[in-house]
Amino acid sequence: MNKITPRLLLSIFATGLLSFMGVLVETAMNITFPKLTVEFNTSLANIQWLTTAYLLVLAAMMPLTVYLMRKFKLPYLFTFAASMFLIGLILDAVAPNLALLIIGRVFQGMGTGISLPMMFNIILTQAPKNKIGLLMGVGNFITAIAPAVGPTFGGFLVSIWSWRAIFICIIPLIIIALIIGIMTIRSADNVTPPKYLDFVGWLLLAIDFSTLILGFNKLATSTILGLVWIAIGGVSCGITAWWYQRQSHPILALNLVKERSFILHLLSFGLTQFTILGMAFLLPTMIQLTLHESSFISGIAMLPGALLGALLAPVGGMLLDRFGAKRPILVGASLELIALVLYWLTVGHANVWGVTLLFMLFTLGQGMCYSNIMTNGLHGLVPQKIADGNALFNTFQQFSGAVGTAIVSLIISLDVTTQKIHGFTFGLLAMVLTLALNVIILWFAFHSKAKA
């Protein structure tokens, strides 16, 4: 079948809308961080847990979702995900303190952690093969459009009402997604139910993510304590690797990393996500703290670039379908690197217009390469392994995003000056080096594929 059916599009829309809302809240809340530090009388590092906790839950849910999609019917699972997200929105809308606000984000992370891999799994297993690149681009467009409107959406609501309105306004849209999902989502016919749940393996992964991210966050307030948590995380990762080698049905198929092309694409995808979320945190904060602009202006500055990147995601998918993966991916990654080098060189003389234009160059590259890296990485897998590969990509995506926001927050926090200009300079330098490494990894990925 080479035709895209309305039911397939609506099921992608329903799961994508729920995923979209998760990213929307995340980027909208970034705008509110300076205000929240004052309202809750706490540090920026503590407020950053609104993003970090959400991403940690996402990363922990991704491998579990593979088991859940094989165990339960997709409409029931989607109903659960949407309900969890709805509970989180209500908690955050009425939260009297930071702790309850973070708990609400945890519930939202559970919902998004199920819906996001479900959306890509529906595309990879139910879409026509000759349209997978396009629909993967559409799927990434749905989630990528959120950073485009998130900062503006959050800044506008904060300026005319309150940060609580961010959660209140989303509630009706989640209900719409729930109704559409129940009506259109169907389970695949050829799914083999799992024999058992590797609960220990999943718990070890959750410990890995939590200890490592906690370590990076603690470095901002206590170097020794932060290093201790990172060391615990390193030991936990070793135990996790040992455990997974001895399981016949592990919850996450780590044996896929033995395939060179797959692991190189996975690393590249993680580094790109590290930079994207690092920029989503750094730029609005920089505009407010160094340029002394309002949260609304910082949101407006991010809007053109984020819209451009989102709109180009389907275009990037079509380029992959027509010309192959190498050219759009390498050109896009190079544009991202050039944009960050220019940011780093001009940070001391930055203005809102300059930040906006360079962000457009960055997201131009993002739109050409981001979803294509994932699509091309999964392309070489046998059909039975696609769901496992999808879970690895989504898990690593959220983990690297959490690491990115934690490290950028740490670097900025180390600068004690009022404008934190040195913190932003070093934060940008860290991301420049990250993307330089990304380009090298992509070169090796295509070089090894050409040899094979």
Features:
globular, mainly alpha, single chain, 16 helices, 452 residues
Low-pLDDT stretches are: none
Overall helicity: over 70%
Instruction: Kindly provide the radius of gyration, computed on alpha-carbon positions and rounded to a whole number of angstroms.
Output: 21 Å
Figure out the total of helices: 16
Shape: globular
The count of β-strands is 0
Oligomer: single chain
Element string (H = helix, E = strand):
HHHHHHHHHHHHHHHH
The profile of the biggest β sheet is: none
CA distance, first residue to last residue? 31 Å
Proportion of β residues?
under 5%
Mean pLDDT: 82
Q: Indicate the structural class.
A: mainly alpha
Verbal overview:
The protein is built from 16 helices and no strands. The model has no long low-confidence stretch (mean pLDDT 82). The longest helix is centred in the N-terminal third of the chain and has 34 residues, at 6-39. Helix 3 runs parallel beside helix 5. 81% of the residues lie in helices and 0% in strands. The chain starts with 5 loop residues before the first helix and ends with a helix. By secondary structure, it is mainly alpha-helical.
In terms of topology, how is this protein built?
Layout: H1 6-39, H2 44-47, H3 49-71, H4 74-94, H5 98-126, H6 132-160, H7 165-168, H8 171-184, H9 199-218, H10 223-245, H11 260-289, H12 295-323, H13 326-346, H14 352-379, H15 386-413, H16 421-451
Helix pairs in contact: 1-5, 1-6, 1-8, 1-11, 3-5, 3-9, 3-15, 4-5, 4-8, 5-6, 5-15, 6-12, 6-14, 9-10, 9-15, 11-12, 11-14, 11-15, 11-16, 12-14, 13-14, 13-16, 14-15, 15-16
